[in-house]
Amino acid sequence: xxxxxxxxxxxxxxxxxxxxxxxxxxxxxxxxxxxxxxxxxxxxxxxxxxxxxxxxxxxxxxxxxxxxxxxxxxxxxxxxxxxxxxxxxxxxxxxxxxxxxxxxxxxxxxxxxx
Length: 114
Known about the structure:
The chain is mainly beta. Helices cover about 10% and strands about 35% of the residues.
């Protein structure tokens, strides 16, 4: 498990959640809280908040007025692990298909200010 958490949010599938610390985030199954993956986050002065968009992108915020909000995709290997685990009750695949988009950087894309 992540040693220190500042925030968490559910992924669109409702069966996984992402929990962030200052420099890393981890994805867990719900409700068992089994860790599925862990990944590094972009550098932020004091990364605090995390949210997930409807298409599964991650939004990261930092402490302080007018701080940048960063958007990043889950790393490809993390998306693959989630896709491997995602099945419906009848055993067929569920969730969105992995995309062929470029690997995310650990810098994230600034989308606004808080």
